[in-house]
C-alpha cells in the first residue's frame, strides 16, 4: 500500500522565539509555584496512612448516583501511578445493571498532592445511562488506590467531599464540576474561614464545564461552596458533602 | 531525570524540535504549535516531578504528553494560560525570514493532509502521527499512548486500510497542492 500525502518538511522553531521561550520556560519551572497548575496542592512529606471514610452526599448530589466508593476497578491496568493530565484510562466495559455504561475512556483532568503527601487524580468519563462521571482517586495508599466516583445526568456544579480515617485524618478534599463560565470557586464557613480556588481544570473538550479541588480542614461546620462569575457574582450555593459539615442554604446572586 | 531546571533545559533542548513539529503536524498551525510545545514541557515538568522519567523512554513519554494535550488542546491552553502568557515572546509576528514562504506553504500543505487524515477515528490519527510522521517505533508509540504494542499494530493496520480508501477519493477530488520541498511518502 502506498499513500502519498505530501507531508511537509520539518522546521526549527524560529531562533529568537525559541531562545525566548526556552529561557522563560526554564525560569518558569525554576520559580516557586505562583498558583496550583490544574489544582496541584503543595505537598508535605509523604505519609502513608490507612483507611478512608466513605463520602456522604450533599444537597446538589441528590441527582447523582454514587456508583463506586472505591475506584479499584477504574485503577486497573495502565492507570497506575501519576499520569499526565489528558491521559485516558480504560474503563470497565461490562458493568452491572445499576452501574454506568461508559461511552468514553476516563480522562485525567487534574492531579496533585495532598498536604500529607498523597498523590491524587481527578478523572471524568461519559456514560450512556448516567451522564458524565467524575472521580477522585488517592494513589498508592497503604490499601492501594482509593477514592470515590460519582455520576449525574445534568450536574454542572457540585461539591463532593473525601476525607477522614487514617488516610486523610486532618483534611477534606472538596471537589466537583463547575460551569465553564466560572472563574473561581469560593468556600466559606462560619468563623471567618474562606478559600478561593481559581485554578479550574478543564476536562475533555466534549465534556461541559471545568473541575475544581480544594483541601480544607476537617471539622468545619456549615460550609458553603459557591462558584463565582467573571464579574464577581456569586452563584449557586452548594454543600460540602463530608458528613461533619452541615449545609445551610443562602440566597444566590442574580443569574448570568 | 528532571530533578532541576538544568535537567529540564537539557530535555527541552533535545526534544523541542520533535515536539514542535509533531504539534504542527497535528494542527497545521505554526503559532499554535509553539504554544503547545511550551505547554507540553510545562506539563512534563509538572508530572515528571512525581513520576519516574527514564532517558530511554523520555521521547516516547513526551510524545504521550503532547498527544494528551492535543486531544484537548483548547482546555490545555486554557489550563496553562497564565504560564503561556509569561513564556510567550512579546512579538506577535514570528521572525521568519527566508523561510516564510516555505512555512506558509507547509501550513497549507499540512492542512490539506489533515483534512484527509482527520476523517479517520482519533486513535488512528494518533498512531499515524506518532509512527509515520514522527518516526516513533511501535514500542515507543505504545508507551506514548499507554496501550499494549499489539494495540498499536492493530490500530496501524486498520488506519492504513481506511486511509488508502480515503486518499484515493480525496486526492482525486482535491486540487493538487504545491509540491513540497521535502515531501515524504506517508505509507510505503
Describe the structure.
The complex is a heterodimer of chains A (256) and B (188). Chain A is mainly beta and 256 residues long. Chain A has 1 helix and 14 strands. In chain A, strands 1-6-5-4-3-2 form a 6-stranded antiparallel beta sheet, with no helix packed on it. Chain A has a 4-stranded antiparallel beta sheet with strand order 7-8-12-11, with no helix packed on it. In chain A, strands 10-9-13-14 form a 4-stranded antiparallel beta sheet, with no helix packed on it. In chain A, strand 13 and strand 14 (234-239) form a beta hairpin. Chain A is globular. Mean pLDDT of chain A is 69; it is low at 34-79 and 239-256. With 188 residues, chain B is mostly helical. Helix content of chain B is 71%, strand content 0%. Chain B has 9 helices and no strands. Chain B has helices spanning 5-27, 30-48, 58-71, 73-79, 81-87, 100-117, 122-133, 138-145, 149-173. Residues 175-188 of chain B have low confidence and may be disordered. Classes of the chains: A mainly beta (256), B mainly alpha (188).
Secondary-structure map with pairings?
The complex is a heterodimer of chains A (256) and B (188).
Chain A: H1 15-30, E1 64-68, E2 88-89, E3 106-113, E4 119-126, E5 132-141, E6 144-152, E7 160-164, E8 168-178, E9 184-189, E10 193-197, E11 201-202, E12 210-217, E13 224-228, E14 234-239
Antiparallel strand pairs in A: 1-6, 2-3, 3-4, 4-5, 5-6, 7-8, 8-12, 9-10, 9-13, 11-12, 13-14
Chain B: H1 5-27, H2 30-48, H3 58-71, H4 73-79, H5 81-87, H6 100-117, H7 122-133, H8 138-145, H9 149-173
Strand runs of chain B, count: 0
Arrangement of strands in the largest sheet of chain A: 1-6-5-4-3-2
**Beta fraction of chain A:** 35-45%
Shape of chain A from CA axes? globular
- The string of secondary-structure elements of chain B, in order, is HHHHHHHHH
Oligomer status: heterodimer
The DSSP helix count of chain A reads 1
Helix content of chain A: under 10%
Fraction in beta strands of chain B: under 5%
Which percent bin holds the helix content of chain B?
Answer: over 70%
Poorly predicted runs of chain A are 34-79, 239-256
* Cα end-to-end separation of chain A: 56 Å
In total, the number of strands of chain A is: 14
Q: Write down the overall geometry of chain B.
A: globular
Structural class of chain A: mainly beta
Biggest β-sheet description of chain A: 6 strands, antiparallel
Amino acid at each position: 500500500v502506498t499513500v502519498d500525502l505530501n507531508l511537509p518538511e520539518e522546521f526549527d522553531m524560529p531562533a529568537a522565539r525559541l531562545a525566548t521561550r526556552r529561557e522563560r520556560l526554564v525560569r518558569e519551572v525554576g520559580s516557586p509555584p505562583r498558583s496550583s497548575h490544574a489544582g496541584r496542592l503543595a505537598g508535605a512529606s509523604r505519609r502513608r496512612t490507612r483507611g478512608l471514610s466513605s463520602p456522604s452526599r450533599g444537597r446538589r448530589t441528590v441527582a447523582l448516583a454514587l456508583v463506586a466508593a472505591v475506584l479499584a476497578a477504574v485503577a486497573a491496568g495502565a492507570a497506575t501511578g501519576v499520569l499526565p493530565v489528558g491521559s485516558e484510562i480504560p474503563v470497565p466495559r461490562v458493568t452491572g445493571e445499576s452501574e454506568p455504561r461508559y461511552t468514553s475512556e476516563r480522562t485525567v483532568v487534574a492531579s496533585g498532592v495532598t498536604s500529607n503527601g498523597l498523590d491524587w487524580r481527578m478523572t471524568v468519563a461519559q456514560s450512556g445511562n448516567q451522564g458524565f462521571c467524575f472521580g477522585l482517586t488517592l494513589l498508592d495508599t497503604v490499601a492501594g488506590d482509593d477514592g470515590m466516583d460519582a455520576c449525574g445526568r445534568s450536574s454542572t456544579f457540585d461539591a463532593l467531599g473525601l476525607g477522614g480515617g487514617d488516610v486523610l485524618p486532618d483534611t477534606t478534599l472538596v471537589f466537583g464540576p463547575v460551569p465553564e463560565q466560572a472563574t473561581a470557586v469560593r468556600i466559606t464557613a462560619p468563623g471567618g474561614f474562606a478559600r478561593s480556588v481559581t485554578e479550574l481544570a478543564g476536562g475533555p473538550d466534549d465534556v461541559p464545564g471545568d473541575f475544581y479541588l480544594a483541601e480544607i480542614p476537617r471539622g468545619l461546620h456549615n460550609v458553603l461552596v459557591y462558584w463565582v462569575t467573571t464579574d464577581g457574582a456569586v452563584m449557586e450555593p452548594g454543600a460540602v458533602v463530608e458528613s461533619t459539615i452541615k449545609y445551610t442554604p443562602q440566597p444566590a446572586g442574580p443569574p448570568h | 531525570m528532571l530533578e532541576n531546571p538544568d535537567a529540564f533545559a537539557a530535555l527541552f533542548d533535545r526534544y523541542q524540535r520533535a515536539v514542535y513539529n509533531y504539534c504542527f503536524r497535528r494542527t497545521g498551525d505554526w503559532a499554535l504549535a509553539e504554544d503547545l510545545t511550551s505547554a507540553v514541557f510545562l506539563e512534563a515538568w509538572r508530572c515528571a516531578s512525581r513520576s519516574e522519567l527514564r532517558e530511554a523512554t523520555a521521547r516516547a513519554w513526551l510524545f504521550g504528553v503532547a498527544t494528551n494535550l492535543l486531544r484537548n488542546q483548547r482546555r490545555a491552553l486554557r489550563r496553562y494560560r497564565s504560564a503561556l502568557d509569561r513564556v510567550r515572546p512579546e512579538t506577535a509576528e514570528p521572525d521568519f525570514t527566508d523561510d516564510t514562504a516555505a512555512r506558509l506553504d507547509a501550513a497549507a500543505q499540512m492542512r490539506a493532509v489533515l483534512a484527509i487524515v482527520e476523517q479517520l477515528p482519533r486513535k488512528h490519527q494518533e498512531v499515524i502521527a506518532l509512527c509515520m510522521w514522527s518516526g516513533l517505533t511501535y514500542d515507543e508509540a505504545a508507551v506514548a499512548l499507554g496501550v499494549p504494542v499489539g494495540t498499536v499494530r492493530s490500530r496501524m493496520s486498520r488506519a492504513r486500510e481506511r486511509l488508502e480508501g480515503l486518499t484515493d477519493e480525496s486526492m482525486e477530488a482535491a486540487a493538487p497542492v504545491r509540491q513540497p520541498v521535502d515531501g515524504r511518502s506517508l505509507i510505503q
